[in-house]
Description:
Elements: H1 2-27, H2 37-151, H3 159-206, H4 213-217, E1 236-239, E2 242-250, H5 261-266, E3 268-269, E4 275-276, H6 279-286, E5 292-298, E6 304-313, E7 322-329, E8 342-344, H7 357-360, E9 364-366, E10 373-374, H8 387-391, E11 395-396, E12 404-405, E13 408-414
Antiparallel strand pairs: 1-2, 2-4, 2-13, 3-4, 5-6, 5-13, 6-7, 8-9, 10-11, 11-12
Helix pairs in contact: 1-2, 2-3
Amino acid sequence: MHTIKLFLFVVPLVIASRVDPDLSSFDSAPSEPKSRFAMLDDVKILANGLLQLGHGLKDFVHKTKGQINDIFQKLNIFDQSFYDLSLRTNEIKEEEKELRITTSKLQVKNEEVKNMSVELNTKLESLLEEKTALQHKVRALEEQLSNLILSAAGAQEPPEVTSLKSFVEQQDNSIRELLQSVEEQYKQLSQQHMQIKEIEKQLRKTGIQEPTENSLSSKSRAPRTTPPLHLNETENTEQDGSPWTLIQHRKDGSQDFNETWENYEKGFGRLNGEFWLGLEKIYAIVQQSNYILRLELQDWKDSKHYVEYSFHLGSHETNYTLHVAEIAGNIPGALPEHTDLMFSTWNHRAKGQLYCPESYSGGWWWNDTCGENNLNGKYNKPRTKSKPESRRGIYWRPQSRKLYAIKSSKENTKE
């Protein structure tokens, strides 16, 4: 800016130097012509001003270019943040939707338990009234019996009194059983109430202000990133007219199952491909009621097999210990029965447990021995011949037989 002011100040001087000779010609006689080198000095002054003006413009252009680059960098950062926020918002919406569904189910069960408790309380009150009336009758009969004993010492007890006493004892036993069932129902009601409170707490934690539809749908340049997998998904399938919840699916090897302990707890994969629901979700589901575990296997000859178990699953503190008892099926020895099977991965194992994932790949429920079965191992094609490579794949081995290669597997559960 200083250069421009200097140039504006120099130009009038040059113009004045050119105009003065002409004006003087009207006032006096012509004098000797000035030297031509005086004009050259004016030109140099003018050129110097133009040069300084060019340097000033060049500096201004560089500063403006730097400011524009900073603006573009900030816009790119804003695009990245907005895109990440959109992805995170969609994930939280899915989790909130699942929690709301679970809450509604628990509320329905809570209402059923409350209704059952009211009915039991009503029956208990009626039985207590009957017990009170019977006790009054028994006291009256006892008084009569005492009088009879006093009047006729050594006489036998009347049969009516004996039958009445046995009836009263039966009623007492019935009341005790009913009280015990009421206590159990009350405990279940308390557990349901605690679960509802816990889910409501999770809903409050995950609750965020949802962006408006226009803001999410506005056109913004998405960064070149790959969106993460949607993990928090469940699927209900219909088999034999009953709903099943899918917890594991292997079919083509598109998903790497040699994951960490943290991912096996949270879940990974997609429902329309290979999928693992997650140990935390499986544990939360099976704690609501008594569930059945169903394994479905298909070999490379497309022969299908299945087995169903009644089972119990422990919490995180027990390494999700699995205990099964076979109910039905045609896969002998698919899982060891009546024993504690602890879940482990390549980066997590229980104290004193063999390190099976190191040799067999994937996360699975193992006992004190390895090699009986592993449905979360590496997906191998039939051409795999080496024994070590086969053991790292998904397989089932019946008792005292060779490894049985698996083409696809499914694990489902239902009440």
